[in-house]
Design a protein that fits this description.
By secondary structure, the protein is of the alpha+beta class. 23% of the residues lie in helices and 32% in strands. It has 6 helices and 23 strands. The strands form 5 sheets. Strands 2, 3, 4, 8 and 11 form a 5-stranded antiparallel sheet that branches. A hairpin with a 2-residue loop joins β16 and β17 (318-328). The two termini are 54 Å apart.
Length: 446
């Protein structure tokens, strides 16, 4: 059986898990956003949550730091204890031994009893509960204790400590030290309470447990209003963040609509298909399902005319084909496209994986997508260096080493970051290739 302290620790870990979840989602998204709304919303929400907890702690701080050196402690006026409810006071040694404990002083039929304020279940605040069917009822989960003994009614065996108390000149005095568990303390009779909030005042505060059939009308109205306000605020925040978010790239992925293409297959340095069309020659980068390249599928068909079935993805003039199957064709083989050297350049851009970037996933770039891009490129997908001019127009080059061989693994440490790369640019059809040594790749500061 877990102790109350363990239960409390588990409850507090929920805040840690919540903070990690918010940080994972929000901080990941903010890496790709340049606007102010996202950071301000995140900071404002964190400030509000932390401020509320600090305010609650500061409110209780005077009690926690109080010294209780006398044997009897003056707790409150007897008339201030509402019928069926409690007032919370401090007992224990306080500053002398560092141990203090809150005591809940309950009134039942104009008789006062004092018990520890901590429920044995999960340290719930008994003093915020009320007396139901003659028993103190915890507001958290409904655990019950008899006021005079601190014992749970049968068949339960939980116990909280009782405290001795006395009433003098209308003041309630509580003995500093608790009694041994199970000690019965006779309730102290007092005059009828006229304090607002007591039953005799006609303004009893509502008390509700989750397993009750129906919440009190006043509490139900308050809850509906609070839920409506929170829901409205959440909806407004979602709309504001959606409006402020940078739009995804104009890309498409024809998921669920496969087609068949015919053309010449080239396996190196990365698989691609050169397909004739009414508009001329279209070159498709090839990818396998998931985070895998198509090298093993394409290798047996290098330089041959094939028929390929799969799904198209497109972003701008970049075309990619996710391959389901490849079959040889009897159609005459197309001639290889000529290559043209354009010179040696130092280019600045971002290294991405071609599959996600062309539209299979959005966003398919930046730090938000870094982990996925690393997995994709390490799986053999074609790496691209994406360049953007001052107007935001994009162009892309296929990265290979200086001999034209694949360069996948060497790129993993620099994917998803702004880089500069120096190498020779070669044009083949509509595709541009950048042949570079890994040593020429430099990560840039934004």
């Amino acid at each position: 059986v877990l102790s109350p302290a363990v239960w409390k620790s588990l409850h507090m870990l929920v805040y840690v898990a919540y903070a990690l979840l918010v940080g994972h989602v929000a901080l990941g998204a903010l890496q790709a956003e340049t606007g102010w709304l996202g950071p301000v919303t995140l900071a404002g929400g964190a400030f509000l949550v932390i401020a509320l907890h600090l305010a609650a702690a500061l409110e209780q701080r005077p009690l926690d730091r109080a010294r209780c050196e006398d044997e009897w402690i003056r707790a409150c006026r007897a008339e201030d204890v509402p019928e069926g409810r409690a007032k919370i006071a401090l007992a224990g040694d306080g500053g002398a031994s560092g141990r203090t404990e809150r005591v809940a002083i309950f009134r039942q039929q104009n008789r006062l009893s004092a018990v520890s304020n901590l429920c044995k279940h999960q340290n719930g605040p008994l003093g915020e509960g009320r007396i139901v069917d003659g028993c103190i009822t915890c507001p958290w989960h409904g655990y019950q204790y008899r006021p005079e003994s601190g014992s749970s009614p049968p068949p339960f065996h939980d116990q909280v400590a009782t405290y001795n108390l006395r009433v003098e000149n209308g003041w309630v005095w509580v003995q500093r030290s608790p009694n041994p568990l199970g000690t019965v303390v006779a309730p102290v009779a007092v005059a009828e309470s006229r304090t607002a909030g007591g039953e005799s005042s006609g303004h009893e505060r509502p008390f509700y447990l989750g397993y009750d059939a129906k919440a009190p009308a006043a509490l139900a109205r308050h809850t509906r209003g609070a839920v409506g306000a929170i829901g409205g605020l959440a909806a407004a925040t979602i709309v504001a963040l959606a409006v402020a978010q940078e739009p995804f790239a104009a890309s498409r992925f024809e998921y669920g609509h496969p087609r068949t293409l015919s053309g010449r297959l080239v396996a190196r340095p990365y698989p691609r298909l050169e397909a004739a069309s009414a508009a001329g020659m279209t070159q498709y980068l090839l990818a396998a399902a998931g985070k895998h390249g198509a090298a093993s599928l394409a290798a047996p068909f290098d330089g041959r005319q094939v028929s390929v079935s799969g799904t198209v993805a497109q972003r701008g003039n970049a075309m990619l084909f996710e391959v389901d199957s490849i079959l040889s064709s009897d159609v005459a083989t197309l001639p290889a496209l000529p290559q043209r050297a354009l010179g040696t350049f130092t280019l600045r851009g971002e290294i991405v994986d071609s599959k996600c970037w062309t539209g299979v996933m959005n966003p398919g770039e930046g730090k938000t997508h870094l982990a996925c891009a690393v997995r994709c490129v390490s799986g053999g997908l074609t790496p691209l260096l994406v360049l953007r001019d001052s107007t935001g127009r994009e162009s892309q080059l296929i990265l290979s080493d200086v001999s034209g061989a694949p360069l996948s693994r060497a790129l993993l440490p620099v994917i998803g970051r702004p880089v500069s790369v120096r190498g020779a640019v070669v044009r083949e059809g509509t595709l541009l290739f950048l042949r570079a040594s890994p040593e020429t790749i430099r990560v840039l500061n934004r």
